[in-house]
Amino acid sequence: MNNLRRFISITQLLRTIQSKSWVPRQCNMTSTAINQSLYNFSEDERMLKETVARFGKEHVEPYVREMEEAGGFKPELIQAIFDQGWLGIEIPTEYGGSGFNLFSSILAIEEGSKIDSAFGGLIDLQNTVVNPFFIQLANDAQKATYLPRLAKNMVGSFCLSEPTSGSDAFSLKTTAKKQGDYYILNGTKMWISNAEISGVYLVMANLNPQAKHKGISTFIVDRDTEGLRIGKREKKLGLKASSTCMVHFDDCKVPAKNLLGKEGEGYKYAISMLNEGRIGIAAQMIGICQGTFDKTIPYTKERKQFGQRIFDFQGMQHQIASLATEIEAARLLTYNAARLRDAKLPFVKEAAMAKLYASELAGKVTSKCIDFMGGLGFSCEYPQEKFFRDCKVGTIYEGTSNMQLNTIAKFIDNLER
Amino acid sequence: MAIRILVGVKRAIDYAVKIQVKTDKTGVVTDGVKHSMNPFDEIAVEEAIRLKEKKIAQEIIAVSCGPAQCQETLRTALALGADRAIHVEVSGKDYEMLQPLAVSKLISAIAKKENVDLILLGKQAIDDDSNQTGQMVAGLLSWPQAVFASKVDIKDKQAEVVREIDGGLETIRVKLPAVITADLRLNQPRFANLPSIQKAKKKPMAKMSPKDLGVDIKPHLEYLSYEEPPKRQGGGRVSSVDELISKLKEKGLI
């Protein structure tokens, strides 16, 4: 289960954002290329998308149920994903990554999630949450130490949520105290994805609780640090192959050079980094929608009742067409948010809309697909019920739907007329 | 002395697509249908790359004959590890009528021009299942051929190839330059990883026409019609060998 990250105060955040009039967004005006469609991929993007799809079908799909039962991926599979370069997509080439854009990550996440939500989720977390922190905020020494490993063979975890703070993320209670050349961390983090397999943890802790959220700082904590303990695995409704644990910090001694960025700016980093993560979750959700849909429609064309294919009943056709339209809309929202981000244009509202819409839709699509499958939809022999359970977390993690609605409303509130 | 390899790749309808015959029986529907590299050609490319990794080969040239979309297939070959690509542009009606003999002539012309030591091809394409191009290239060049390869060992300008034939496995030794066609069990092709996809962008792709190679690609066969195979009839169950034999006799089959 991923962290529940939240803005401490939307108003405070939005004071840093300029108000916008409601005009269609001007795209990169220096480009002479005509924007054809959001499906206009570059050759690299197309190749990546196809490769992930094929790999997923051949190397992940046969083991999906097995991984769910085991509560994790086989280490060989994780290394194979690393070897393909899919966990360092945006890491610059000088650090061993591929230097691609966010949109490429989004395509990889979507294709992965069509096969298995945890497969897509692994690609999502590393590329849209963990790596950006290092790429955008780390100093040269930290980049040189961590980025090559993150690209090659080390999974990372992001630790923000705690038992008493989810949406109200910045009321976190984990403390950090400077002592000579170390920071001593104390506290407990909850819902940490990949905690069992990660080699590095990005931990948000408060150096100065008196200053409230302005004391929050970000620390890079290696797995073998004294005082860091991984708690037991959570038993979850879905996304079981992505293990989630508590992480305990008991007088955890973190070297001072492992402070990421500046003291007291952690909350700002969290807010800005997590916007990208939001697009990643949207991609995971649209992958689940399309994956479930693609596995259900062929059945409706084979299954006959009352002397005809169930697909041929007008009632079914209307529902199917309606879902297909909504999935298309969710995908375009997601792709557009990613393109905006790559063009370095404002994208926060669009990212929130994409995540909100896609995650809510996934619940609806998977539920309806179970209906279309009839009794078989309820059986564990078929994939629909797994997609149904897996997608539920989408409306919760990386910002609940209510929080996304708050965000979008504030943007609208701030428009000049 | 490391050898130079020419690998032929064909853009064919993807194996997972459900084929639809055109209503006028002149062919199958290809518009808007997913195409990808012929699976046997992927195996050929993989073998070439492995030879390069073993330092037996020093250069891999990928070639494809067809319309502009073939460049996607060639880019995939580059992303897998080929060093450069040649696109022989054949489009429209010419492409619809392009047959194995013409392709063999084109590949032979390029092999001579590039002075390669080995031609690796897929044993057949999954769209027409002709299984002719490799054999005809060898014939046109008067080179030895080792087709249906399930194992290839190259040493001292000779190739020892295990062939899958009806009776089992046959091992032959051929002198290079030669033509080898890949069968299913030759190897398991890799996935193009991101760093290779990135490197592929910088690799050169040359374009030429059949005229540039002095090849006449006119067809020699006329396809009369395309039809779907007859729909599968339901079978029947029998409860004993005797009943089976009497049923077969009834149907006049034995």
Strand order within the widest sheet of chain A?
1-4-5-8
> CATH superfamily of the largest domain in chain A, called what?
Butyryl-CoA Dehydrogenase, subunit A, domain 3
Radius of gyration of chain B: 21 Å
Distance between the termini of chain B: 60 Å
The amount of helix of chain B comes to 25-40%
Q: Write the H/E string of chain A, N to C.
A: HHHHHHHEEEEEEEEHEEHHHH
> What's the overall geometry of chain B?
globular
List unreliable stretches of 5+ residues of chain B. none
Number of domains of chain A: 3
Low-confidence stretches of chain A: 1-5, 17-32
**CATH architecture group name of the largest domain in chain A:** Up-down Bundle
Q: How big a fraction of the residues of chain B is strand?
A: 25-35%
Overall shape of chain A: globular
User: Helix amount of chain A, in percent?
Assistant: 40-55%
Q: Could you describe the largest sheet of chain A, including whether it forms a barrel?
A: 4 strands, mixed
The level 1 CATH classification of the largest domain in chain A is: Mainly Alpha
Give the overall average pLDDT of chain B: 94
Average of per-residue pLDDT values of chain A: 92
CATH topology of chain B: Rossmann fold
The total count of strands of chain B amounts to 11
Domain Electron transfer flavoprotein alpha/beta-subunit N-terminal (chain B): 25-217
GO molecular function, one term (chain B): electron transfer activity
Organism (chain B): Rotaria sordida
Subcellular location (chain B): Mitochondrion matrix
